[in-house]
């Protein structure tokens, strides 16, 4: 994986609307917006931050992550996933990292990454944790994508099903990590 990451490090992102997971998702792209409530209070918030920085949403049987430390802007990461009995490698670059307190006292932290040429789709994915002013803590995934490989172009519904399965699994993995 180190060789794949090194080879992709200088490559440009494979999509155009960089940063669009922060606001309105771009029209004409497959879009996902999912949120799960993790609990309430400062203890849950602290565990959610640790899970976010530790990439814990990727702790699932069919996905493996190769990364070096917590998310940082410019970091290149390789995801290995198994679909239909075949392993694929997908490379992304972290394009944004944030942690802030809003005027109303709400807290937000997260990161977004964008796809590089060695990926089955092109687009962006955002992982965010938040604590609302009332203390409710949540985890959200937002993404937009279009096919980029021959398989996802020929059978786009398959690509969307795999992405939806990833989001479901990531929400479950993250929830388990925070509740542990």
Strand fraction: 35-45%
- CATH architectural name: 2-Layer Sandwich
Mean pLDDT, to the nearest integer, reads: 91
* Strand elements, count: 7
Describe the protein's architecture and organization.
There is one protein chain. The chain has one domain: Alpha-D-Glucose-1,6-Bisphosphate, Chain A, domain 4, CATH 3.30.530. Helices cover 27% and strands 39% of the residues. The chain contains four helices and seven strands. Strand 4 and strand 5 form a beta hairpin. Helix 2 packs across helix 4.
Short summary:
With 180 residues, this protein is an alpha+beta fold.
Key terms:
seven-stranded antiparallel beta sheet; 7 strands; globular; 180 residues; single chain; Alpha-D-Glucose-1,6-Bisphosphate, Chain A, domain 4; alpha+beta
Question: How are the SSEs ordered, and which strands pair?
Answer:
Elements: H1 2-8, E1 30-40, H2 42-53, E2 63-66, E3 76-83, E4 86-101, E5 107-115, E6 121-131, E7 136-147, H3 150-154, H4 156-179
Antiparallel strand pairs: 1-7, 2-3, 3-4, 4-5, 5-6, 6-7
Helix pairs in contact: 2-4
């Amino acid at each position: 994986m180190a060789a794949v990451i090194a080879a992709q490090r200088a490559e440009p992102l494979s999509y155009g609307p960089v940063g669009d997971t922060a606001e309105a998702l771009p029209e004409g792209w497959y879009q996902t917006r999912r949120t799960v409530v993790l609990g309430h209070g400062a203890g849950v918030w602290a565990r959610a931050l640790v899970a976010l920085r530790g990439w814990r949403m990727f702790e699932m049987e069919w996905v493996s992550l190769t990364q070096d430390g917590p998310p940082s802007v410019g970091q290149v990461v390789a995801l290995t996933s198994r679909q239909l009995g075949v392993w694929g490698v997908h490379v992304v670059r972290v394009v944004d990292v944030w942690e802030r307190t809003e005027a109303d006292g709400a807290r937000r932290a997260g990161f977004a990454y964008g796809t590089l040429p060695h990926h089955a789709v092109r687009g962006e994915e955002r992982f965010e944790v938040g604590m609302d002013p009332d203390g409710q803590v949540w985890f959200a995934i937002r993404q937009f994508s279009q096919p980029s490989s021959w398989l996802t172009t020929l059978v786009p519904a398959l690509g969307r099903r795999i992405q939806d399965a990833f989001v479901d699994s990531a929400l479950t993995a993250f929830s388990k990590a925070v509740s542990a």
